[in-house]
Amino acid sequence: MDSFKGKYERVSADNYEEFLKALGVGLLLRKAATVSTPVMEVSEENGTWTIKTSTTLKTMELKFKIGEEFDETTPDGRDVTALVTLDGNKLVTVQKAKKDGVASTKSVREFNGDEVVYTMTIDGNDDLVCVQKFKRV
């Protein structure tokens, strides 16, 4: 898992704006998110993993221990119970909404050498898949 650690820059994003729209993110925030070039930094200390994603506008930090549930407020404002598990070379995050009518999501970060393929889906919306690709910097 040490091979996961490092900094990665986004090189492509498919269906990202559509994904954000389906989550109810407003137009200005969607536009800002889609034109930015985020850098994702993956680190670990004493079993606690941190995935920090930074753009010129905002920095988001996800801290977790693999296999331990935690409460999270997502960048788009959803209150969720989250769980990150390890599946081979993948970190799988499941975010279950705490309120009815709020989207639950699943994201998979697949680490392939110097590339991370970040796939996001919304429960109950199988037609919409967002895929972002990051390259190690």
UniProtKB/TrEMBL annotation:
Lineage: superkingdom: Eukaryota
Residue ranges of the TM segments: none
Pfam families in the record: Lipocalin
Kindly state which keywords UniProt assigns to this record, in alphabetical order.
Lipid-binding
Q: InterPro entries attached here? A: Calycin, Fatty_acid-bd, ILBP, Lipocln_cytosolic_FA-bd_dom
Q: Does the keyword Ubl conjugation apply?
A: no
Every copy of the Lipocalin/cytosolic fatty-acid binding domain together lies at 6-121
What's an example of a GO molecular-function annotation for this chain?
fatty acid binding
Q: Which residues form a coiled coil?
A: none
Please verify whether the record's keywords include Membrane. no
The similarity annotation says: Belongs to the calycin superfamily. Fatty-acid binding protein (FABP) family.
- By what name is this protein known? Cellular retinoic acid-binding protein 2
| Species this chain originates from | Pseudodiaptomus poplesia
